[in-house]
Amino acid sequence: MKKLSARRRHPLAALVVLLLALACTGGLYAVFAPADKAQADETAQSLAIDEGKKLYAVGCASCHGTGGQGTTDGPSLVGVGAAAVDFQVGTGRMPAQQPGAQVPEKPVVYSQAEIDQLAAYIASLGAGPAIPSEEKYGPEGADIAKGGELFRNNCAQCHNFTGKGGALTHGKYAPSLEDVDPKHIYEAMLTGPQNMPSFPDSTMSEQNKKDIIAYLDAVNSDDTVEPGGLSLGGLGPVSEGLFAWVFGLGALIAVAVWVAARTAKAKKS
């Protein structure tokens, strides 16, 4: 009876069955389970790059070259980063309408999804600044007073004191910063488009950029009250001084002429 019992059930049989069950479960999971998140993200990024390359070939390659190396009609895009693409295309400056001293802002040609695909392709050509997340340019934790100080020291020379914009040399200009998306302001500081110098994080911290954006939002808000009355376009002391010279001195000259005329009439009579 003992020999018959031993033949029917080996002591290791349960362990073997358990191992086989685990192997089958693992194999089935590997076949039917969803792809790993990192792998899925990599696949999505690869698809975005492919779609962006197609869009680039149609709308950008004629000026910037088939591989983004640049031509006589457009600069190289190797290493400019996704942030530069998101700014230039997201504000309608690119594709350029016509050559000139400066490419103006105009209605956007591409959807945001297409802009992201273009940005992914350009980013694949060389490392560069990435598109910033909302926490970098949002109002949370921003110091408006500090932003005003930073703006006056670094930006007002071109954009003037409240971001109204101003003329530069050779037909160029600093555009108005009113109603500009905070993300695009951050990207402009990060990448330095056209005539603007760039302010990477090594030169101006993320917090400082956030502070400047908060200041611009405050001074250009619809709720902002001009403490001095008429703002004269917010152009600063140059326009205000000119106003005083033209109208102030003009009024004084008119009064002087009137007094002289009255005096001359009085002497004649």
From TrEMBL:
The lineage of its organism: Bacteria, Bacillati, Actinomycetota, Actinomycetes, Kitasatosporales. Its main location: membrane. The cytochrome bc1 complex is composed of a cytochrome b (QcrB), the Rieske iron-sulfur protein (QcrA) and a diheme cytochrome c (QcrC) subunit. It is found in: Cell membrane. It comes from the Bacteria. InterPro entries: bc1_cytC-su, Cyt_c-like_dom, Cyt_c-like_dom_sf, Cytochrome_c_Oxidase_Subunit. Gene3D superfamilies: Cytochrome c-like domain (1.10.760.10). PROSITE patterns: CYTC, PROKAR_LIPOPROTEIN. Keywords: Cell membrane, Electron transport, Heme, Iron, Membrane, Metal-binding, Repeat, Respiratory chain, Signal, Translocase, Transmembrane, Transmembrane helix, Transport. This is Cytochrome bc1 complex cytochrome c subunit. The keyword Disulfide bond does not apply. It is a multi-pass membrane protein. The chain crosses the membrane at residues 242-261. It is an enzyme of class 7 (translocase). It catalyses: a quinol + 2 Fe(III)-[cytochrome c](out) = a quinone + 2 Fe(II)-[cytochrome c](out) + 2 H(+)(out). Residues 47-126, 142-220 form the Cytochrome c domain. It holds the Pfam family Cytochrom_C. Its EC number is 7.1.1.8. Residues 1-30 form the signal peptide.
